[in-house]
Amino acid sequence: MKITFVMANLVSLSGGLLANASLAYHLQKRGHQIYIVCPQKRKPTGLQQVKSLLKGKGLISTKQTGPSHLDSFDLPSRILDHPPPVTDADVPDADIVVATWWETAEWVANLSPSKGAKVYMIRHHETHDYLPKERVAATYRLPFYKIVISQWLVDIMKTEYGDTNVSFVPDSVDLKKYYAGARQKQTIPTVGMLYSPLYWKGCDITLKAVSLASQQIPNLKLVCFGTRPPVPELPLPPGSEFFCQPPQDQIKDIYASCDAWLFGSRFEGFGLPILEAMACRTPVIGVPAGAAPELLSDNIGILVKPEDPEEMAEAIVKICQMSQEQWRQISDRAYTKATSYTWDDAARLCEQAFEIALCS
């Protein structure tokens, strides 16, 4: 099949771009012809430029530059020489054209039938306060064939948009990038988390849980990484170790330095750090957001109630107080779960979804 992915950004370290690129790459390995297209950024307004200058950040560029997950893949891609939208003139005729974000769905909706059967890869329910909720919701009602990455999104499409004909294609993890040998607990009890000031990422809950757990484990250490430094409104506890945009080959070592990885997102389409940590043999304590219910059930990790730092703290203490043998068992279960489903499996399921879309 000829498959075009329409993306909003190709220069990013977001989990969404990593997952889309991984899926596209494995589809390409299976013999499909892949093409990825993305527009330039919109031209900033004069007021936005002034604000950027006053903050000492210089003029805002419309060029997409910087580190990107796409750099790790040999995929044909093109950043257009104009801002959105993407139009017929920008994409080749194909069998399938994939929208990967609510705004790209608006562009794809206007493409000619010759550009391919229209598929919507839904990685989150993007009805956040900082986005135009009505426009976002409208894209989920478009007559596209939908692919979702978690059971939560399957349920959302059914209950909120009346769409029961969707394909479930969970994400996987690159086992050449995220791995660790069999190991024991750390000498100093250590937990880790992905740091983000975004409210829906739930770092306030996770940090509160760490604070509560440290009352029973005084030498508890927190390790975390993120794309931006910590903000004063969401401070890290004393003695924490923070990595800002660490090199990609260092992230596996961060995961593997922890006795448990904490996942506290209020909302999440999937939650790739869950799988990444588990592939590095680190058990996960998480709330039931995104794919956590599927990944952490059956005693593979520890699921805790949402908005409940007390229960998360209890789980932290439980894991940190396990014997080496008990911890090794839950570590092994996490690793087995993470390695039982590959990106090639995901590509195979995606092929099946595309075939349904072609017949719709």
Q: What are the key terms here?
A:
360 residues, alpha/beta, Rossmann fold, 2 domains, seven-stranded parallel sheet, six-stranded parallel sheet, 12 helices, 13 strands, globular
Cross-sheet strand order for the largest sheet: 3-2-1-4-5-6-7
| Radius of gyration using CA atoms only | 21 Å
Characterize the largest beta sheet: strand count, sense, and whether it forms a barrel.
7 strands, parallel
Number of helices: 12
What is the CATH architecture assignment of the largest domain? 3-Layer(aba) Sandwich
* Mean pLDDT over the full residue set: 93
- What is the highest CATH level, the class of the largest domain? Alpha Beta
Strand content: 15-25%
Label the structural class.
alpha/beta
Measure the end-to-end span: 16 Å
Q: Note the run of SSEs as H and E.
A: EHEHEEHEHEHEEHEEHEHEHEHHH
Number of domains: 2
What is the tally of beta strands?
A: 13
Secondary-structure map with pairings?
Elements: E1 2-6, H1 15-29, E2 33-38, H2 46-54, E3 77-79, E4 96-99, H3 102-109, E5 117-122, H4 133-140, E6 145-148, H5 151-161, E7 166-168, E8 190-194, H6 203-213, E9 221-226, E10 241-244, H7 248-256, E11 260-263, H8 272-279, E12 284-286, H9 292-296, E13 302-303, H10 309-320, H11 324-338, H12 343-359
Parallel strand pairs: 1-2, 1-4, 2-3, 4-5, 5-6, 6-7, 8-9, 8-11, 9-10, 11-12, 12-13
